[in-house]
Amino acid sequence: MSLSTSVHDIKTLVLSSHPLIAIETVEEDRVHALLLSVAAQLRMPFFEWSITRGLTRAEESNTPHRLTASPASLLQHLEGLSVAGLFLLKDFSRHLDDAAVARQFRELAQRFTQKRSTAVLTAEDVRLPNEIEHAAVRYHLRLPDREELEEAIDCVLQSLGKHPHRDVQLAAKERDELLRALQGLTLNQARQAVSHAVLEEGKLTARAAQGVLNRKAQAIREGGLLEYYPVEDNRFQLGGFANLKAWLDRARVGFSTEARALNLTPPRGILIVGVPGCGKSLAAKVIAREWALPLLKLDAGRLFDKFIGESEKNFRKAIALAESMAPVVFWIDEIEKGMVAAGSGEADAGLSRRLFGAFLTWLQEKRQEVFVVATANDLSILPPELLRKGRFDEIFFVDLPTEEEREAILGIHLGLRKQEPDKFDLQRIVAASDGFSGAEIEQAVVAALYRALHLKRPLDTALLLEELKQTVPLSISRREDIARLRETARGRFVSVR
């Protein structure tokens, strides 16, 4: 969303006699610039207020008016104004916990409707009492678009232009990569990132884009909502899944410049359902590796917070982080954990249903190159809306591995642990592992190796067979659940193989 679009949106709200607009953002300067442009186009006086400086008019902003610094004195002053204006109130919502201030502000909002004035409340977190919330409209100020980021780069280079050695060494493609890396940052963060790159290298070089991505990755790790898997650390392997791999090979074309030239949107994502331990999570990691994209993992359980409204904010923050890393693979693990109440009741006062609705809306409307890989073990508690065609590009079902896949899985896990598969009777081991999931086969290899170390002997076929014999797989212990899962998936979902 460009600045001109935001100006048009806010101008429409003001002309529609909305007395209160709430904008949650850390970009105060951007809101100020936006409202200044709106006021100029509407030929309205523009005022801003903070508790430290009081109410000031735009052209007199260098002169503080501390007589209006307190919330009560501000409201009393605004009540007496006869002129219609646009008022930016910084951090004012936190003062509405005072009943007298809240009552006076509510009455002011009613007067503003008649006077065609508008107050814009901005802060990182704008919480309003219910009676005031009904009178307000919330406006989502999107992060800077490509045009604004280009201006930010030029502004930084111009400010550093007095130093002749700080020149630019970016080809058109490299500048494009830098702009993509900067997406998802605030204007101030973008300026800081470009300045840091210039000061570190002495000039703006091709390494700037990677430096920005590294700073983003660090912010994601510190945020605690997402796990980050960089491309260079992704060494995961996947046995079998030929049908899924073929589909992904075709879908990859959707991220190409040729596809963009034809106005084709990138693929939205896939849902992988099936038997636990059979490679759903591994598939997400391998997709990121094959496409040479970073991987972000969201555990739906991390979203939930005991404070009202915080879970939704956690979700929006996770989505914003994912979009800031685009192109990226966004893995939502065990999605049903966050959707239980949406399908089974109101145990959490509708929180899961709201999160579910927000997720579906984002999935349907997202424009950034974020490929979603959602995994689920329990279909019985997934809302039916998630499974209907069109939500995801495809829904895949993962069953227990076939004989051929079990042999491939054994080869992978033996090789990872410095064992030569050719030295084992794989035919006997594969037959003994019938009904085992990939995770259970891996665990059998690990347990057999521990036993071999304890016995001070090399791992051999006999030890592996003994370990398999002592393991009760899920296909036995949860036979009914797996049969029900297979029955549900039959004819509805595409097999990964």
Description:
35% of the residues are buried. The model is unreliable at 341-347 (pLDDT under 50). Helix 3 runs parallel beside helix 4 (99-115), helix 8 (187-201) packs across helix 9 and helix 17 (403-416) packs across helix 19. The chain folds into four domains: 3-138, 3-Layer(aba) Sandwich (Rossmann fold), CATH 3.40.50; 146-223; 231-238 and 250-398, Rossmann fold; 403-477, Orthogonal Bundle (Helicase, Ruva Protein, domain 3), CATH 1.10.8. The longest helix is centred in the last third of the chain and has 18 residues, at 438-455. It is of the alpha/beta class and 497 residues long. It has helices at 3-15, 28-42, 71-80, 99-115, 130-133, 146-159, 172-182, 187-201, 207-223, 242-251, 257-261, 280-290, 310-324, 340-344, 351-365, 384-387, 403-416, 426-432, 438-455, 461-469, 474-477, 479-489, and strands at 20-24, 46-50, 54-57, 86-90, 118-123, 136-138, 226-229, 269-274, 295-299, 328-333, 370-376, 394-398, 494-495. The two termini are 41 Å apart.
